[in-house]
Amino acid sequence: MKNKMKIGVLIDSNSVRNFEYVLLKYLADSPLYECEVIISSSSHRQTTNSLLDSYLKFDKFVNARGKNHMQLRTIDDLNIVTKIEIAECDLLLNLSSETLTQKSITLAQYGVWELRFGQTQTDAHLAGIMEVFQTEDTTPIRLCKLPDSSGNGYIIDQMLCATHELSPVKNRSDVVWKSHMLVVRNLEKLVKAPQHFMQEKYQNLYFFKDKKTDSQINVETTLLVLKQGLKNITSRFDRLFRKQQWSIYYAPNTKETTFNQNMSAFEILEPPKEEFWADPFVVDKDDKSYIFFEAYIYKTHKGHLSVVEYDHKTGQMSEAKEILKTPYHLSYPFMMEHEGEIYMIPEGCKDNDVKLYKATNFPYEWEVERILLDDIVAVDTTLFFKDDTWWLFANVAEKEGFSLNEELYIYHCKDFLTDTWTPHQQNPVLSSVQTSRPAGGIILHHGDYYRPSQNSVGCYGRSTNFNKITTLTPECYEEVFVSEITPEYIDGIYAVHTYNASQNMTVIDGLKKIGRFF
């Protein structure tokens, strides 16, 4: 690249928050950019509500003692030129609390970018706090282009994150940490194809709102803080006496069944009290349906893989039998038949890879065939074949501290047994806790492909979506929501996050609460 893109970054002082420091370090170290830091005349925003300040300190001590990405760090060790006034640049990134004038906005060729957090469109200081107090299930992160003199302000990109139910401090720290990658990804797209990038974004305008200030937020906080404190106490008592337990539900099919939402026909496969069973997959063979699933042991905090056999002639279900156990946690045993062989891809993200297993003595004995992806934290890997290509879907945590529920990645190759997988050009193709994470195998129905996905809005695995795949190429991925299985279909459960069907059997899982002592 002949000329570097000149990026101006507006900050309040030479001490920035950790997530901003990591972003500045990326800009300073990258060969793509020439970065200048501009110190604004404003200071960091601070809340003036003493009750809120006190609660945040208490919450940090009780719920959020880990990494704090709002912690201040000096930028003196970064190789960045520091200015004291806004100068002309290709793009201006506003990380300060300053409200920019139209003159400042028009100085940059590609405008001014700014991060906005939450439903209330605040800056980082208040990111994700009101979402916890107001019991919002999700916290949005938006990268915005500020309106210029012609009023062209819009959302460049966004990510929908799950709100931490009990801790505003943890929610804020997690949300701002993820935001720096939203900036990085879009800067890389901009520098690779500037005209295409700006035209594409301009044609997909979103409604643009101004940020809310501290004074607007503080009026709303007093009663919400008291309510949140009571919610924390109630939640702790609930966890003391009750625990979550996943169970498997199954229904033999009388004919080819897809999108079977008639839960009245389902029977429960209930685990022992010291375990939960989840992520069921099913394979038909010799008048039997074999249900593979995660068996999680509460005492060891680790899952292994097990199988039960359903005999369609007798209507009898066998006892569960362990089939695969490793030193690390296993779940989501994706099953696939290919050229007379049966393969399995379990989730084993703690080993930082994606392994393909082959049955050597179905269904009880398995051996590793190959490593599909290495040096990656990926969950719920799902394969299918379309257009002479193998496609691999998985949710990936690109960096430590990123959620595994929010970003869907796709890879492709011609032969899954020999080829190296190529990342999709749009990765991550989806960034939403509402629809990203896989929830079962891809379904072919009447010539169309449907992708089950988890909706973790409200709680992990709250419901299962069915999304019709409308575009799938190495350059583009698009899907549309079609229908949903919600926990209301079965009495006593409050989440359902896996769906799979063979010709003879449909399986799902359901989450309920059981007593710890009775």
Task: Characterize this entry briefly.
The protein is α+β, with helices and mostly antiparallel strands.
What does this structure look like?
The protein is globular. 40% of the residues are buried. A seven-stranded mixed beta sheet has the order 5-3-1-6-7-8-9, with helices on one face. The chain has helices at 18-29, 50-63, 102-107, 129-133, 168-192, 194-202, 214-218, 221-241, and strands spanning 5-11, 15-17, 33-39, 72-74, 81-83, 91-94, 112-117, 138-145, 154-162, 242-252, 267-269, 275-285, 288-297, 302-311, 316-317, 321-324, 331-338, 341-347, 353-361, 365-374, 378-386, 389-396, 407-413, 422-423, 430-431, 443-445, 448-455, 463-472, 477-485, 499-501, 505-515. Strand 12 (275-285) and strand 13 (288-297) form a beta hairpin. By secondary structure, the chain is an alpha+beta fold.
Main sheet specs: 7 strands, mixed
Oligomer: single chain
Total of DSSP H or I helical runs spanning 4+ residues: 8
User: pLDDT below 50 for ≥5 consecutive residues: which ranges?
Assistant: none
What is the overall pLDDT average? 86
